[in-house]
Amino acid sequence: MTRNHRTILVTGGAGFVGSHLSLSLRRDLPDATVIAFDNLRRRGSELALARLAAGGVRFVHGDVRAAADLAEAGAFDLLVDCSAEPSVHAGYEGGAEYLVDTNLMGTARCLEAARRHGADVLFLSTSRVYPIAGLRSLPLDPAGDRLDLAPTATGPGWSHAGVATGFPLDGPRSLYGATKLASELLVHEYGAMYGLRTLVDRCGVLTGPWQMGKVDQGFFVLWAARHLYGGALAYRGFGGDGLQVRDVLHVADLHALVLRQLAALDRHAGCTFNVGGGRGCSISLRELTGACARLTGRTLEIGRIADTAAADVPWYVTDNTAVGSAFDWAPARSVEDTLEEICRWLYDHRTLLEPILGTRGGHL
């Protein structure tokens, strides 16, 4: 049951995932007060404010790095922590201070607030906690327009079904991934030490309408936007062939899972789950290009950049077996359904979105 969740604080609440969860929780838990807390640093996050207000969500402008800002949000019974510098490439070409302060120290500030109020904690982590070298060493082979594992292939924490939480964690994973993994440890330590009910979701690629897609975060929306609005795209890395694969989860399917998790926190407190679209909702960049062309009626010349960025991996598919079994959950929306919904959103809101999503340049 969602007992005691009279007031829900969603950090990163004006971001793509945070705003969707804020609005959906307010809709589905009408007796709860939902507070969206955000510093509005990411371009496009300001567009969420009108939607939050219309949906009955209270907005608090603040930064998770500042304990005083969190205090101004008031008491809460549930923390849904969506706040982060979300780019896996952050820190490679400059300082890492903002990344570490936000993703690690910000988590510590949020947990201190949760401790003071005795609140439950749902922490959204990332698949990028898994080491880069380990993911690159998977025995992948070209299979049509994608890279894939053989159906019988298996190893520690991985199989044809995808990557499970047992995947080895030894090795570098980017500062982004390291800060999220360290935050996971803090979350569970606070749970054990202070008696908080905590749960961690390691999310793969999340997408849907109102995601302000960029090269380094939100590629699914970016690909659709460039096909509709125009602009350059390129297959980057792994030879520039566009065969790299990700699974994709519609943010509404994440919300459906969150509701089930909140109702079962007593049974699953202290647990960590991999959460994503799974094999059935996986797609390569080359396959995505074809799907965008079919839906928009526009064909783009996709560039090729053979060099691979330091943080890039060729294949990641979530093994949803554990989370599906624990919560009787599975993604309800296919890749095709999600892409069609995004294209309709891009078309319906073109005047608003084209200045943000229609700029030139971009690659994955």
| Total number of strands | 18
How many helices? The count is 13
**First and last CA, distance:** 41 Å
Mean pLDDT comes to 94
Largest sheet: 7 strands, parallel
Share in β-strands: 15-25%
Q: Which blocks of ≥5 consecutive residues have pLDDT under 50?
A: 360-364
Return the structural class.
Answer: alpha/beta
Order of strands, widest sheet: 3-2-1-4-5-11-15
Radius of gyration: 20 Å
What's the helical proportion of residues? 25-40%
Shape: globular
Brief description of this entry?
With 364 residues, the chain is α/β, with parallel strands linked by helices. The protein contains 13 helices and 18 strands. The protein is globular, with a radius of gyration of 20 Å.
Can you walk through the features of this model?
With 364 residues, the chain is an alpha/beta fold. Helix content is 39%, strand content 19%. It has helices at 16-28, 48-54, 67-72, 97-117, 132-136, 175-194, 219-229, 251-263, 265-268, 285-296, 321-327, 335-348, 350-357; strands at 7-11, 33-38, 58-61, 78-81, 120-126, 141-143, 146-148, 154-155, 158-159, 162-163, 198-203, 205-207, 234-236, 245-250, 271-275, 282-284, 303-305, 315-316. Helix 7 packs parallel to helix 10 (285-296) and helix 7 crosses helix 12. The longest helix has 21 residues, at 97-117. It is globular, with a radius of gyration of 20 Å.
